[in-house]
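dumping this here before i forget
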Amino acid sequence: MQWRKQNPQIANSIWDELQATNSRLAAELVSLSKAGSSNDYDKLRDIIQENRKLVRQMSKESNVPIEPEAQTKLLDACSQIKGVIGGVTPGAGGYDAVVLLIEDKAEVVESLRDMLKDYKFEVKDVETVGSGRVGLLRVREEMEGVKEERIEDYSEWIG
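structure:
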């Protein structure tokens, strides 16, 4: 946010483009929901890629790793899997998560698991150096609102 205050012209330009892209994303999701069983996600993929491009531009301009190179590589690798529509770094980045939009098919999840089981997530930047493993959380949309989760469902992630 400090970068945005200090560089309002470029920051507002990127911010405005991101807002427009996010609006197009929302409109495309609504359009797909009304289309029923359409499997044509090309437009949605393009919008997600444009969003990521703008986030990387903001990362570069602000010198803040919103979508750092390690996550770019991970998102690009995941996006090559049939059934993965696209993905982004949530929030302000931070190397700890990516969000993927996928087709709701068991084979897509299995393909992701297979690819990620040997995936090496390596961070090499000015502030952080390290590596780790990547795994899937079983997270999906809910229509119920707030509900209590079972801790057993997350046992593989609890040390």
